[in-house]
Design brief:
single chain, 135 residues, alpha+beta, 3-stranded antiparallel beta sheet, two-stranded antiparallel ribbon, flat, 5 helices, 29% strand, Ribosomal Protein L22, Chain A
């Protein structure tokens, strides 16, 4: 590896260390349904996002609530002396990407078969701190 590549790689690693993130892989919900819920909480304060997810009727909100709690816990691991209520944490970025698909066949009339695609997704959530952005 060249010197320039090593420097950019090291700087990228340093940025990743400062990020507070949580990932949910191979969630058996279609990405489209998950994005509907993810769009509701994108950019919101953590406490407000938790309340939105808790009282949402969608099945995807249960999984996103668990992911958000995991991201908050990751933040507490990095900052054990700080308190979540005093810090202004918000959902900086949330991405929903398509994952693998399970392909099944369903019988159809006259000896035919229809393909059923059971979709799944990957969700990446990154938390930000308003206090750090101001300073």
């Amino acid at each position: 590896m060249g010197a320039r590549k090593r420097n950019t790689s090291d700087s990228r690693k340093e940025l990743k260390k400062s990020l507070i993130m949580a990932k949910l892989n191979n969630c058996p919900t279609s990405p489209r349904k998950m994005r509907l819920v993810a769009d509701q909480v994108r950019g919101k304060d953590v406490n407000k996002a938790l309340s939105i997810l808790k009282f949402s009727q969608k099945q995807a909100s249960l999984r996103l609530e668990k992911l958000l709690l995991s991201a908050i816990n990751n933040w507490q691991q990095k900052n054990p002396d700080s308190d979540v209520e005093n810090e202004k944490l918000y959902i900086k970025e949330i991405k929903v990407d398509g994952a693998g698909m399970l392909k099944r066949l369903r019988p159809a009339p006259q000896g035919r078969a229809h393909r059923i695609r059971k979709r799944s997704n990957h969700v990446t959530m990154i938390l930000g701190n308003l206090n750090q952005n101001i300073n």
